[in-house]
Amino acid sequence: MFKNRHISNTFAKRSVNLSVESDAAAQILPVCEIIRPKKRRELNKNNSSSNKGVDDVVYSTNRDDDIRDTRATSTYEIDTSSEHDCRATLERNLKIGKQILAGELKDKVYRGKGAYRPAITMEESSIAASKYTGLYGPVRASTTNVRSTLRIDYQPDICKDYKETGYCGFGDTCKFLHDRSDYKSGWQIEKEWNEQQKLKQQKLNAKLERFKRGQMGEDLDSEAEECISSSDEITDDDLEDEITPAVKKMIRKCRKIELPYACLECKRFWKLEMHPVKLSCGHYFCQDCAVKSYQQYGKCNKCGFTLDGIMNEAQKLLELLN
């Protein structure tokens, strides 16, 4: 009823008819060509034998590309370089000052701002500690990384009974930490910091008031006034220099304006080379004696007034000497 067709005999056959030449003797029979589909071979990534035709290409990594991609170890250069900031300059000046005092370098040679013979000895530890006062400019950053990892433990899980009494009923089976060390919350740290800032501000205000009183010459303590009146009396036996006519003229001028005509420490008559200075308490000394006294005691040798490093030029004495 139904005819069975053999598909295999007619599968992928193509008849190729070639043109018959003009010569009748030449006769070409038809040719059948079987075209089979090409099987594509799947590459197995796990098998190295299947990748024989692929060239092995290796790329070397670049650190700059990694920094731009991850940004984990990237740094910022907003602040001044640590080699040229204020702290580095102070450390360099301190090193130069020590070499000058030791005689390794010559004095009176310009080597930069502040690189001269130090009047007051200073240690490197004091430079590092002075960052809290803000005297030496911006604080050097501890790290230059942009991204930092921070962990805050809001729940320390410390055994309250053991911390307060030193005893816990659970013993070693307690799941909380047995620690009796003191720790503070954030609000307690902020409160103490605010109190410290208030004390610093009060000390600064008191120092400014003392400086203003010394500048204006008003509101001196009674003890300081007594010391000034008693110590300014210089006798002829205390003087070390010879009295010349020029010195006598200078003495008369100083007595008219009620100023000492000699240094209260070394008892030498005033000269321009001595660079007379006026302390905040009102006493007059030559520059060498004032600096030496401040290095040893930090106070005035006559009245014991705290100087705080304040020494001003004696303008009236300089006018007389000129």
Helix proportion = 25-40%
Q: What's the count of strands? A: 5
Q: Low-confidence parts lasting 5 or more residues at pLDDT below 50? A: 11-21, 218-233
Name of the top-level CATH class of the domain at 226-321: Alpha Beta
Could you give me the name of the CATH homologous superfamily of the domain at 226-321?
Zinc/RING finger domain, C3HC4 (zinc finger)
Task: Describe the strand arrangement of the main beta sheet, using strand numbers.
Answer: 4-3-5
CATH architecture of the domain at 226-321: 2-Layer Sandwich
Keywords: Metal-binding, Zinc, Zinc-finger
InterPro entries: CWC24-like, Znf_CCCH, Znf_CCCH_sf, Znf_RING/FYVE/PHD, Znf_RING_CS
Organism: Babesia microti (strain RI)
GO molecular function: zinc ion binding
Write the layout of secondary structure elements.
Blueprint: E1 15-16, E2 31-32, H1 63-70, H2 86-102, H3 124-129, H4 160-165, H5 186-216, H6 222-231, H7 245-256, E3 277-279, E4 284-285, H8 287-296, E5 311-313, H9 315-321
Antiparallel strand pairs: 1-2, 3-4, 3-5
Could you characterize the architecture of this molecule?
With 322 residues, the chain is mainly alpha-helical. Among the domains are: 86-132, no CATH class; 186-219; 226-321, Herpes Virus-1 (2-Layer Sandwich), CATH 3.30.40.10. It is 33% helix and 4% strand. The chain has helices spanning 63-70, 86-102, 124-129, 160-165, 186-216, 222-231, 245-256, 287-296, 315-321; strands spanning 15-16, 31-32, 277-279, 284-285, 311-313. The strands form two sheets. The chain has a three-stranded antiparallel β-sheet with strand order 4-3-5. A two-stranded antiparallel sheet has the order 1-2. Strand 3 and strand 4 (284-285) form a beta hairpin. Mean pLDDT is 73; it is low at 11-21 and 218-233.
